[in-house]
Amino acid sequence: MINDDSHIYVIFGASGDLTKRKLVPALYSLYVQDLLPEKFALLGVSRSDFTDMDFRSGMKKAINAFKEIDDTSHIDSFIQKIHYQSIQFNDASTYHPLRQRMEILRTDEEICGNTLFYLSTPPSLYGIIPQHLASVGLNSQEDGWKRLIIEKPFGYDLESAMILKNQLLKDWQEEQLFRIDHYLGKETVQNLLVTRFSNGIFEPLWNRNYIHHVEITSAESIGVEKRGGYYDTSGALRDMVQNHLLQVAAITAMESPSSLEPVAIRNEILKVFQSLRPIKKEDVKTNTIRGQYLASTIKSETIAGYRQEEGVDPKSVTETYAAIKFYIDNWRWGGVPFYIRTGKRLPTRVTEVVIHFKPTPHFLFTSGSLSSSCNQLVIRIQPDEGMLMKFGMKTPGAGFDVQNVNMDFHYSDLTHQRIPSAYERLIYDSMKGDSTLFARTEEVIEAWKFLSPVIECWKDEKDVPLYGYPAGTWGPETADDLIEDKSITWRYPCKNLSDDGIYCEL
Ligand SMILES: NC(=O)c1ccc[n+]([C@@H]2O[C@H](COP(=O)([O-])OP(=O)(O)OC[C@H]3O[C@@H](n4cnc5c(N)ncnc54)[C@H](OP(=O)(O)O)[C@@H]3O)[C@@H](O)[C@H]2O)c1
Question: Which parts of 166-314 are beta strand (E)?
């Protein structure tokens, strides 16, 4: 392998939304921080017919519009590194001129054979592009590393994911594949690992002996915006649960890795996926809830229902809300329910993990507002990133009234350093060949396997209801029924980490 970090960064789907909103602004930010190699070229590839100058000017606008970093003084020198090549993705013959173009770039810019190919096209092309690249030898690592970054979704169900896996592994090695899950690039998700394994106080409690249940919420207040056409073929289960939220659950539940080597961390994550208790078809009805938002009025504004959104089938049965209860069958978690819920048009935008601890064995203090299971650790992924511990405290005065109080830490207090975006972090790691924060093939396949019965039942069986919920509420009321213990409800988080309650400030 050539000991040189120079490389060409090739983006397929370069005329698209993701390239301009996330990828190029993130690359510019790395450039400003001097984190790109000195010898570096970015080659945008799409069907659209642009000259280098057209494409550069579009990317300049994008960097200014979707600012990742305040310093814009280096944009003109950065865009000199950007080039463009038009191809027809499905036409093998156009990969020869692509290869020639890359060879010219290498010679002109003195770049070795290292190449990153980023697939930011419609998912239907994730199999064919790598196959065509291999047909012209662009998967060969003889003259330098070749890596493929693959956007989500990786397949539409278990069958299509298996087909894609086999297509990719025919010409590429597993270590060349970087499946992006931008949740794993978030500082606060990585901090879950650090919180758990850099502190002695959490691990002894982090198990079935002390934890009653684990709740993971990812709520969005917006609807499907302009993505109705795409979303209607996907839905909340595929869009959020299959990838992001099961990954967050796995990091919450994993054993301590033996080291920080990518393989050690990924092995532990995979074991969690392998320990997910399969949901039997007959249990889908009791272990899952699906919903779809209905028109409503929020703060005097009329909000369209999902079926009225642009690009959505007026008879659509695609879920915009999904909640699921499951178990992880191992010694640490045996019998502890995990609850995941996600939805669009919920009251606020929030993602968090809540560890609910078991109540004390003997409930001594019966006066005051304390509930029997008061201890919660809230790990906030976004917004107001941080951690919150809830515990019981004596209310000052006579007697022994006890109330719930909060102890909170806000991530923003930790440092004045800027927090890199998930894409910036993941792009940088992929350049360094660090696959820790990328999903491995087996993880993705296990996640599809686990959700297959749910997908099947939601598609086929008429007796798994699709509940409507008014936009701006916390989803179908019946979602509370998922939680076995009737004295417990979902947490109703607010924008501010320290607040909760169904009527709190959003
Ligand atoms: N946008 C996001 O925030 C986001 C977030 C997470 C994941 N993703 C994933 O990232 C990928 C790219 O997202 P995007 O929003 O940038 O997609 P996009 O704008 O719809 O498409 C990217 C580019 O692919 C080409 N393309 C579109 N339809 C095509 C077709 N039928 N056949 C061949 N080429 C086609 C277009 O370029 P030409 O017409 O010039 O060829 C387009 O500019 C998608 O798979 C998406 O699921 C996106």
Answer: 177-179, 211-219, 288-294, 296-298, 301-303
